[in-house]
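Board notes (copied after class):
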Amino acid sequence: MKESAVKKIAVLTSGGDSPGMNAALRAVVRTANYYDIECYGVREGYNGLINNDFLKMGARSVKNIINQGGTILKSARSAEFRTKEGRQKAYDNCVKLGIDGLVCIGGDGTFTGAKIFSEEFGIRVIGIPGTIDNDIFGTDNTIGYDTALNTAMDAIDKIRDTATSHNRVFFVEVMGRDAGFIALNSGLAAGALDILIPEKKDSVDELFVKFRNAEKTGKSSSIVVVAEGEKLANVYDLAEKTKQTFPDYDIRVAILGHMQRGGSPSCADRVLASRLGYGAVTGLMEGQTNVMAGMRSNDLTYTPIEEAIKKHNEINKDLLLISEILAI
Protein backbone atom coordinates (compact mmCIF):
# COMPACT_ATOMS: atom_id res chain seq x y z
CA MET A 1 0.00 0.00 0.00
CA LYS A 2 1.27 3.47 -0.88
CA GLU A 3 1.96 6.06 1.79
CA SER A 4 -1.01 6.53 4.09
CA ALA A 5 -3.17 9.65 3.82
CA VAL A 6 -3.59 9.60 7.62
CA LYS A 7 -1.03 9.35 10.41
CA LYS A 8 -3.14 9.45 13.54
CA ILE A 9 -6.76 8.38 13.87
CA ALA A 10 -9.48 8.20 16.51
CA VAL A 11 -12.38 5.78 16.80
CA LEU A 12 -15.67 6.20 18.65
CA THR A 13 -18.96 4.37 19.19
CA SER A 14 -22.12 6.46 19.23
CA GLY A 15 -25.88 6.10 19.49
CA GLY A 16 -27.52 2.82 20.45
CA ASP A 17 -25.11 -0.01 21.24
CA SER A 18 -25.12 -3.18 19.17
CA PRO A 19 -23.40 -6.57 19.54
CA GLY A 20 -20.18 -6.49 17.52
CA MET A 21 -19.19 -2.89 18.22
CA ASN A 22 -16.27 -4.15 20.30
CA ALA A 23 -15.22 -6.48 17.50
CA ALA A 24 -15.23 -3.51 15.09
CA LEU A 25 -13.23 -1.42 17.55
CA ARG A 26 -10.70 -4.24 17.90
CA ALA A 27 -10.33 -4.45 14.12
CA VAL A 28 -9.82 -0.68 13.78
CA VAL A 29 -7.17 -0.56 16.50
CA ARG A 30 -5.23 -3.59 15.34
CA THR A 31 -5.35 -2.64 11.66
CA ALA A 32 -4.04 0.83 12.54
CA ASN A 33 -1.33 -0.79 14.68
CA TYR A 34 -0.34 -3.10 11.82
CA TYR A 35 0.14 -0.14 9.48
CA ASP A 36 1.98 1.99 12.09
CA ILE A 37 -0.85 4.49 12.48
CA GLU A 38 -1.42 5.92 15.96
CA CYS A 39 -4.91 5.17 17.21
CA TYR A 40 -6.97 6.76 19.97
CA GLY A 41 -10.26 5.60 21.41
CA VAL A 42 -12.84 8.26 22.26
CA ARG A 43 -15.00 7.63 25.31
CA GLU A 44 -18.78 8.21 25.17
CA GLY A 45 -19.06 9.07 21.49
CA TYR A 46 -19.05 12.67 20.35
CA ASN A 47 -19.16 13.82 23.99
CA GLY A 48 -15.64 12.42 24.31
CA LEU A 49 -14.45 14.53 21.36
CA ILE A 50 -15.86 17.64 23.03
CA ASN A 51 -14.56 16.77 26.51
CA ASN A 52 -11.11 15.71 25.27
CA ASP A 53 -11.64 12.18 26.58
CA PHE A 54 -9.15 10.30 24.40
CA LEU A 55 -7.37 7.04 25.21
CA LYS A 56 -4.32 5.91 23.25
CA MET A 57 -4.89 2.34 22.14
CA GLY A 58 -2.55 -0.40 21.00
CA ALA A 59 -2.97 -4.05 20.07
CA ARG A 60 -3.23 -5.15 23.71
CA SER A 61 -5.83 -2.47 24.51
CA VAL A 62 -8.46 -4.51 22.69
CA LYS A 63 -7.60 -8.02 23.88
CA ASN A 64 -10.46 -10.33 24.86
CA ILE A 65 -13.22 -8.00 23.64
CA ILE A 66 -14.22 -9.62 20.33
CA ASN A 67 -16.78 -11.76 22.17
CA GLN A 68 -18.20 -8.97 24.35
CA GLY A 69 -21.49 -7.19 23.69
CA GLY A 70 -21.93 -3.46 24.17
CA THR A 71 -18.93 -1.16 23.77
CA ILE A 72 -15.93 -0.73 26.06
CA LEU A 73 -15.65 2.90 24.89
CA LYS A 74 -19.23 3.54 26.08
CA SER A 75 -21.81 5.25 23.91
CA ALA A 76 -23.90 8.38 24.23
CA ARG A 77 -26.02 10.78 22.24
CA SER A 78 -24.50 14.26 22.32
CA ALA A 79 -26.77 17.31 22.29
CA GLU A 80 -23.76 19.63 22.38
CA PHE A 81 -22.26 18.10 19.24
CA ARG A 82 -25.38 19.19 17.37
CA THR A 83 -24.24 22.79 17.88
CA LYS A 84 -21.51 24.55 15.88
CA GLU A 85 -19.79 25.51 19.16
CA GLY A 86 -19.70 21.90 20.32
CA ARG A 87 -18.22 20.71 17.04
CA GLN A 88 -15.61 23.47 17.20
CA LYS A 89 -14.50 22.20 20.62
CA ALA A 90 -14.31 18.68 19.22
CA TYR A 91 -12.20 19.82 16.26
CA ASP A 92 -9.86 21.86 18.47
CA ASN A 93 -9.21 18.75 20.59
CA CYS A 94 -8.51 16.70 17.46
CA VAL A 95 -6.03 19.34 16.29
CA LYS A 96 -4.23 19.31 19.65
CA LEU A 97 -3.69 15.57 19.34
CA GLY A 98 -2.93 15.67 15.64
CA ILE A 99 -5.93 13.50 14.73
CA ASP A 100 -6.40 13.54 10.94
CA GLY A 101 -8.88 10.69 10.55
CA LEU A 102 -11.98 9.57 12.45
CA VAL A 103 -13.80 6.22 12.45
CA CYS A 104 -17.40 6.50 13.68
CA ILE A 105 -19.24 3.31 14.61
CA GLY A 106 -23.02 3.70 14.86
CA GLY A 107 -26.23 4.36 12.96
CA ASP A 108 -27.67 7.17 10.89
CA GLY A 109 -27.51 9.74 13.71
CA THR A 110 -23.82 8.96 14.17
CA PHE A 111 -23.24 9.26 10.43
CA THR A 112 -25.11 12.56 10.20
CA GLY A 113 -22.83 14.02 12.87
CA ALA A 114 -19.74 12.66 11.14
CA LYS A 115 -20.78 14.10 7.79
CA ILE A 116 -21.38 17.59 9.18
CA PHE A 117 -18.12 17.48 11.17
CA SER A 118 -16.13 16.49 8.10
CA GLU A 119 -17.74 19.11 5.88
CA GLU A 120 -17.18 21.90 8.40
CA PHE A 121 -13.58 21.16 9.34
CA GLY A 122 -12.16 18.94 6.61
CA ILE A 123 -11.22 16.04 8.88
CA ARG A 124 -11.46 12.66 7.14
CA VAL A 125 -14.25 10.43 8.44
CA ILE A 126 -15.43 6.91 7.67
CA GLY A 127 -18.51 5.33 9.20
CA ILE A 128 -19.03 1.73 10.25
CA PRO A 129 -22.72 0.68 10.43
CA GLY A 130 -23.36 -0.56 13.96
CA THR A 131 -27.09 -0.92 14.65
CA ILE A 132 -29.40 -3.87 15.20
CA ASP A 133 -32.09 -2.28 13.00
CA ASN A 134 -30.36 -3.10 9.67
CA ASP A 135 -31.79 0.13 8.24
CA ILE A 136 -28.59 1.62 6.80
CA PHE A 137 -28.28 1.73 3.02
CA GLY A 138 -25.04 0.53 1.42
CA THR A 139 -24.49 -2.70 3.32
CA ASP A 140 -26.33 -6.02 3.22
CA ASN A 141 -26.20 -6.26 7.01
CA THR A 142 -25.33 -3.90 9.83
CA ILE A 143 -23.21 -4.95 12.81
CA GLY A 144 -25.45 -6.37 15.54
CA TYR A 145 -28.39 -7.25 13.32
CA ASP A 146 -27.62 -10.98 13.09
CA THR A 147 -27.16 -11.28 16.86
CA ALA A 148 -30.37 -9.37 17.61
CA LEU A 149 -32.22 -11.51 15.09
CA ASN A 150 -31.08 -14.71 16.77
CA THR A 151 -31.89 -13.31 20.22
CA ALA A 152 -35.42 -12.48 19.07
CA MET A 153 -35.87 -15.89 17.43
CA ASP A 154 -34.66 -17.69 20.54
CA ALA A 155 -37.04 -15.68 22.74
CA ILE A 156 -40.00 -16.34 20.44
CA ASP A 157 -39.17 -20.07 20.46
CA LYS A 158 -39.38 -20.02 24.26
CA ILE A 159 -42.64 -18.06 24.20
CA ARG A 160 -44.08 -20.63 21.79
CA ASP A 161 -43.53 -23.35 24.41
CA THR A 162 -45.84 -21.47 26.78
CA ALA A 163 -48.30 -20.60 24.02
CA THR A 164 -48.58 -24.25 23.02
CA SER A 165 -48.87 -25.50 26.59
CA HIS A 166 -51.75 -23.15 27.42
CA ASN A 167 -53.42 -22.71 23.99
CA ARG A 168 -52.58 -19.02 24.07
CA VAL A 169 -52.16 -16.27 21.52
CA PHE A 170 -49.03 -14.17 22.01
CA PHE A 171 -48.38 -10.78 20.50
CA VAL A 172 -44.60 -10.35 20.56
CA GLU A 173 -43.06 -6.94 19.91
CA VAL A 174 -39.50 -6.84 18.59
CA MET A 175 -37.16 -3.90 18.05
CA GLY A 176 -36.08 -2.35 14.76
CA ARG A 177 -37.25 1.24 15.12
CA ASP A 178 -38.93 2.14 11.79
CA ALA A 179 -37.69 -0.98 10.00
CA GLY A 180 -39.22 -4.45 9.98
CA PHE A 181 -36.13 -6.59 9.27
CA ILE A 182 -35.95 -8.17 12.73
CA ALA A 183 -39.70 -8.78 12.84
CA LEU A 184 -39.93 -10.32 9.38
CA ASN A 185 -36.95 -12.62 9.66
CA SER A 186 -37.46 -13.70 13.28
CA GLY A 187 -41.17 -14.21 12.63
CA LEU A 188 -40.49 -16.35 9.59
CA ALA A 189 -37.82 -18.35 11.44
CA ALA A 190 -40.08 -18.90 14.45
CA GLY A 191 -43.20 -19.82 12.47
CA ALA A 192 -45.38 -16.83 13.38
CA LEU A 193 -49.02 -16.79 12.30
CA ASP A 194 -48.67 -13.17 11.20
CA ILE A 195 -45.90 -10.57 11.01
CA LEU A 196 -46.78 -6.88 11.21
CA ILE A 197 -44.15 -4.46 9.91
CA PRO A 198 -44.17 -0.77 8.92
CA GLU A 199 -43.08 -1.49 5.33
CA LYS A 200 -46.43 -3.05 4.39
CA LYS A 201 -50.00 -1.88 4.82
CA ASP A 202 -51.48 -4.09 7.51
CA SER A 203 -55.10 -4.23 8.60
CA VAL A 204 -56.84 -5.63 11.65
CA ASP A 205 -59.41 -7.35 9.42
CA GLU A 206 -56.66 -9.28 7.60
CA LEU A 207 -55.20 -10.31 10.95
CA PHE A 208 -58.60 -11.57 12.08
CA VAL A 209 -59.02 -13.55 8.87
CA LYS A 210 -55.76 -15.32 9.65
CA PHE A 211 -56.99 -16.16 13.14
CA ARG A 212 -60.22 -17.62 11.70
CA ASN A 213 -58.32 -19.63 9.09
CA ALA A 214 -56.01 -20.92 11.82
CA GLU A 215 -59.03 -22.10 13.81
CA LYS A 216 -60.31 -24.00 10.77
CA THR A 217 -57.02 -25.84 10.39
CA GLY A 218 -57.02 -26.80 14.07
CA LYS A 219 -54.43 -24.36 15.40
CA SER A 220 -54.88 -23.93 19.13
CA SER A 221 -52.09 -21.40 19.75
CA SER A 222 -50.52 -18.64 17.71
CA ILE A 223 -47.66 -16.15 17.67
CA VAL A 224 -48.03 -12.70 16.08
CA VAL A 225 -44.76 -10.79 15.71
CA VAL A 226 -45.09 -7.00 15.69
CA ALA A 227 -42.33 -4.55 14.77
CA GLU A 228 -42.05 -1.67 17.24
CA GLY A 229 -42.52 0.78 14.35
CA GLU A 230 -45.76 -0.85 13.13
CA LYS A 231 -48.15 1.90 12.01
CA LEU A 232 -51.43 0.00 12.42
CA ALA A 233 -51.47 0.10 16.23
CA ASN A 234 -49.23 -0.66 19.17
CA VAL A 235 -48.98 -4.20 20.43
CA TYR A 236 -51.32 -3.65 23.42
CA ASP A 237 -54.04 -2.10 21.26
CA LEU A 238 -53.76 -4.99 18.81
CA ALA A 239 -54.15 -7.48 21.65
CA GLU A 240 -57.17 -5.59 23.01
CA LYS A 241 -58.90 -5.43 19.61
CA THR A 242 -58.29 -9.13 19.13
CA LYS A 243 -59.76 -9.91 22.55
CA GLN A 244 -62.90 -7.94 21.70
CA THR A 245 -63.42 -9.95 18.50
CA PHE A 246 -62.29 -13.29 19.94
CA PRO A 247 -63.35 -13.17 23.62
CA ASP A 248 -62.49 -16.84 24.17
CA TYR A 249 -58.83 -16.33 23.25
CA ASP A 250 -56.28 -16.40 26.06
CA ILE A 251 -54.10 -13.50 24.90
CA ARG A 252 -50.73 -12.34 26.21
CA VAL A 253 -48.30 -9.59 25.19
CA ALA A 254 -44.51 -9.92 25.30
CA ILE A 255 -42.16 -7.01 24.56
CA LEU A 256 -38.63 -8.27 24.05
CA GLY A 257 -37.09 -4.81 24.37
CA HIS A 258 -33.43 -4.10 25.01
CA MET A 259 -32.42 -7.72 25.52
CA GLN A 260 -32.09 -7.72 21.72
CA ARG A 261 -29.32 -5.12 21.88
CA GLY A 262 -27.12 -7.08 24.27
CA GLY A 263 -25.25 -10.33 24.41
CA SER A 264 -22.19 -11.86 22.85
CA PRO A 265 -22.11 -11.18 19.09
CA SER A 266 -22.72 -14.05 16.69
CA CYS A 267 -20.00 -15.41 14.44
CA ALA A 268 -21.50 -13.52 11.49
CA ASP A 269 -21.41 -10.23 13.40
CA ARG A 270 -17.82 -10.78 14.58
CA VAL A 271 -16.64 -11.48 11.05
CA LEU A 272 -18.62 -8.55 9.61
CA ALA A 273 -17.26 -6.19 12.27
CA SER A 274 -13.71 -7.36 11.65
CA ARG A 275 -13.99 -6.81 7.91
CA LEU A 276 -15.57 -3.38 8.26
CA GLY A 277 -13.08 -2.25 10.92
CA TYR A 278 -10.25 -3.22 8.61
CA GLY A 279 -12.01 -1.54 5.68
CA ALA A 280 -12.51 1.71 7.58
CA VAL A 281 -8.81 2.07 8.37
CA THR A 282 -7.57 1.09 4.92
CA GLY A 283 -10.18 3.43 3.42
CA LEU A 284 -8.80 6.35 5.43
CA MET A 285 -5.27 5.37 4.40
CA GLU A 286 -6.32 5.51 0.75
CA GLY A 287 -7.77 9.01 1.21
CA GLN A 288 -11.44 8.07 1.42
CA THR A 289 -13.66 10.41 3.43
CA ASN A 290 -17.32 11.01 4.18
CA VAL A 291 -18.12 7.42 3.27
CA MET A 292 -19.40 4.34 5.07
CA ALA A 293 -17.68 0.98 4.88
CA GLY A 294 -20.15 -1.79 4.10
CA MET A 295 -20.44 -5.31 2.72
CA ARG A 296 -22.47 -5.95 -0.43
CA SER A 297 -22.56 -9.39 -2.02
CA ASN A 298 -19.65 -10.30 0.28
CA ASP A 299 -17.44 -7.49 -1.08
CA LEU A 300 -16.15 -4.48 0.85
CA THR A 301 -17.71 -1.29 -0.53
CA TYR A 302 -17.73 2.41 0.31
CA THR A 303 -20.98 4.36 0.13
CA PRO A 304 -21.21 8.15 0.52
CA ILE A 305 -22.56 8.86 4.00
CA GLU A 306 -25.22 11.16 2.58
CA GLU A 307 -26.54 8.26 0.50
CA ALA A 308 -26.32 5.82 3.39
CA ILE A 309 -28.54 7.96 5.62
CA LYS A 310 -31.03 9.13 2.97
CA LYS A 311 -31.80 5.77 1.40
CA HIS A 312 -32.97 2.62 3.16
CA ASN A 313 -32.56 -1.10 2.63
CA GLU A 314 -35.73 -2.65 1.24
CA ILE A 315 -37.65 -5.53 2.73
CA ASN A 316 -37.48 -8.73 0.69
CA LYS A 317 -41.02 -9.15 -0.63
CA ASP A 318 -40.40 -12.85 -1.30
CA LEU A 319 -39.95 -13.35 2.45
CA LEU A 320 -43.32 -11.72 3.09
CA LEU A 321 -45.01 -14.15 0.70
CA ILE A 322 -43.13 -17.14 2.11
CA SER A 323 -44.09 -16.19 5.67
CA GLU A 324 -47.77 -16.10 4.68
CA ILE A 325 -47.66 -19.41 2.81
CA LEU A 326 -45.88 -21.25 5.61
CA ALA A 327 -48.08 -19.86 8.41
CA ILE A 328 -51.18 -21.89 7.44
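Comment from the instructor: The two ends are 56 Å apart (CA to CA). The chain has a mean pLDDT of 94.
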